[in-house]
Amino acid sequence: MNRQQRCDAIRPALCAWFAKAARRTPWRQTRDPYKIWIAEVMLQQTQTDTVVPYYHRFIERYPTCADLAAAPLDEVLRLWEGLGYYARARNLHAAAKMLVAERGGRLPDSGEALRALPGVGDYTAGAVASIAFARPEPVLDGNVARVLCRAFRIRKPPAEPVTRRTLWRIAGQLVRDDDPGTVNQALMELGALVCLPRGPACADCPIAEQCEARRRGEQETLPIRTPRAKTPHHTIAVGVVWRRGKMLIDKRPATGLLGGLWELPGGKQRRGESLSEACRREICEELGIEVTVGEKLTAVRHAYSHFRVTLHAFTCRYKSGRCRAIGCDAWRWVSPDALEQYAFPRANRRILDAIELSCRYP
Question: What is the spatial distance between Cα 130 and Cα 292, in angstroms, rounded to a whole number?
Fold first, then answer.
């Protein structure tokens, strides 16, 4: 059986299985391209169960593209808080503004046009075009790559460019004009529920008969995994700076990691520097003020996709100087009861929650 014949055998088996086994999610109950787009962006590198409550809140607040475009970015980021990968929210907001200005708030129906939107790559373009508009556009994410590597016995790491191109070609052979959205969703669902990274449930797999890896007993060894580099760890000192009953927060630059979010001022500890020294120095470099560093309040560990951090939070008192946005985009003195109005990274929010629980407001 050649590759195209295997694709032709896999396609109906996938669709039949999906009709019976698919999880019932809110974005599968709509044909609105805007709502499908929001869901697909949220689902990037995020599990379905995590996305569902965020999706409900987001669509309730911004039921149309025009509603999203008209919202302040700070409000969008606050609603996104805790979902991570905040560039997704910034790009959604920018794309919504572009769509309203250029297309009356309507999404384009082709993969090529969708890829012109901020934050829309090949995967998201393929998902939206196929699911919302029935265009025969393929998708390829981690789940789909795993299914294809096993079904077609691809014995090279899927992250390699040559392998990636091969997988895209196979994914393209699988989608046809008749219901490509179902094929793509079935591939993703199969990888999420059955064709698991470890311990795949081959007995429940609708394409087990067409799976070359299973036939050869290689389903546990494929895809080929590349060795992971050691994950860097950074030690961060931040200050809970008080002045006249208000707390100092600053806003991260709009671009880069966690762009546009508010945070407690501080930064990385240098070699040979104590945590309290790092806290004082970083606040001075970031905002141009001197503070007195007091007791340590808490420590919070957090993992990002490519590194880990431990944030050490200290009570600080404003000492002297005039706040300036030197290493940030903005700063603000806020009362504790107003903190909920601002979008913070998850690790910072955990610090703020710990402060509230311990009742340490001056």
Answer: 58
Please, are residues 318 and 243 in contact by the beta-carbon 8 Å criterion?
A: yes
Is 81 considered catalytic here? no
The answer to whether the beta carbons of residues 55 and 39 sit under 8 Å apart is: yes
In this prediction, residue 283 carries a pLDDT of 97
Query: How far apart, in whole angstroms, are the C-alpha atoms of residue 308 and residue 310?
Result: 7
What phi, psi does 358 have (nearest 5°)?
A: -90, 0
Which one of 40, 81, 189, 286 is the catalytic residue?
Answer: 40
Instruction: Sketch out the chain's domains with CATH numbers.
Output: 3-215 (1.10.340.30), 233-357 (3.90.79.10)
pTM of structure = 0.88
Residue 307 has pLDDT above 60, yes or no: yes
Rounded to whole angstroms, what are the CA distances from 12 to 24, 178, 206, 212, 292? Answer: 20, 11, 10, 18, 68
- 302 backbone dihedrals φ, ψ, rounded to 5°: -150, 140
Q: Distance (Å, rounded) from C-alpha 44 to C-alpha 54? A: 13
What span, in angstroms and rounded, lies between the C-alpha atoms of 289 and 281?
Answer: 9
CA angle, 158 then 176 then 107, to 5°: 85
Q: Which tokens go with 333? A: 């003195």
**pLDDT score recorded for residue 358:** 53
Q: Where are the beta strands (DSSP E) in the chain?
A: 233-243, 246-251, 262-263, 266-268, 290-303, 308-320, 330-334
